[in-house]
């Protein structure tokens, strides 16, 4: 973990979370996680301008916040566009080519913590269950036999993971 940039950001979710299954590293082809959730978070600094005697907004910086495993499952069902959030993790820069062929750099936060910012409202915490949740009338049913892995079962029922790094995410991402 030497020479890494660990940061915390505070901002607003810009769009509904995007959930990926079987996320792989495009360079190595290595599977990073069975479940990944990406949330775009906009961070806009505010400052007080004495010359006009009012608060002003600075330039918004956008971050792609990536979460894995049980954190990904919880983020996917807990936030939506406009939710004020706080995220903490390792900041990396991802270089890519856009549709017009221009090289771009994206700020990516590989989050190990993610929460709702209670400065602007309230939230209700629900502890995850080690047993499958009871279904609600009209809700789709998931058969344990139909799911391909323990990760699928955990993701669909939001169960707490028992291992520290069940999908090998930390080893793959942190190296």
Helix and strand string, N-terminal first? EEEEEEHEEHH
Question: What would you report as the Rg, rounded to the nearest angstrom?
Answer: 18 Å
Tell me what portion of residues adopts beta-strand conformation: 35-45%
- Broad structural category: mainly beta
Q: Looking at this structure, what is the CATH superfamily?
A: Nucleic acid-binding proteins
Overall average pLDDT: 80
Shape: globular
Strand order of the largest sheet: 1-3-6-8-7
Classify the fold: give the CATH topology: OB fold (Dihydrolipoamide Acetyltransferase, E2P)
The parts where pLDDT drops under 50 for at least 5 residues are 142-147, 157-163
What is the CATH architecture descriptor? Answer: Beta Barrel
* Biggest sheet overview: 5 strands, mixed, barrel
What's the number of extended β-strand segments? Answer: 8
Number of domains: 1
**The CATH top-level class label:** Mainly Beta
N-end to C-end Cα span: 8 Å
**What is the helix tally?**
3
User: Which percent bin holds the helix content?
Assistant: 10-25%
């Amino acid at each position: 973990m030497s020479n890494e940039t660990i940061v915390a950001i505070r901002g607003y979710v810009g769009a509904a979370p995007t959930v990926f299954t079987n996320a792989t590293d495009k360079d190595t082809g290595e599977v990073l996680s069975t479940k990944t959730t990406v949330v775009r978070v906009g961070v806009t600094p505010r400052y007080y301008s004495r010359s006009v005697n009012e608060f002003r907004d600075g330039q918004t910086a956008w971050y792609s916040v990536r979460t894995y495993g049980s954190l990904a499952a919880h983020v996917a069902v807990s936030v939506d566009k406009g939710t004020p959030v706080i995220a903490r993790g390792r900041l990396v820069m991802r270089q890519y080519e856009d549709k017009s062929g221009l090289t771009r750099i994206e700020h990516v936060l590989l989050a190990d913590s993610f929460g709702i910012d209670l400065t602007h409202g309230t939230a209700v915490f629900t502890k995850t269950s080690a047993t499958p949740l009871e279904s609600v009338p009209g809700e789709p049913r998931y058969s344990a036999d139909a799911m391909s892995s323990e990760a699928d079962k955990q993701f669909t029922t939001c169960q707490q993971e028992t291992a520290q790094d069940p999908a090998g995410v930390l080893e793959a991402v942190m190296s």
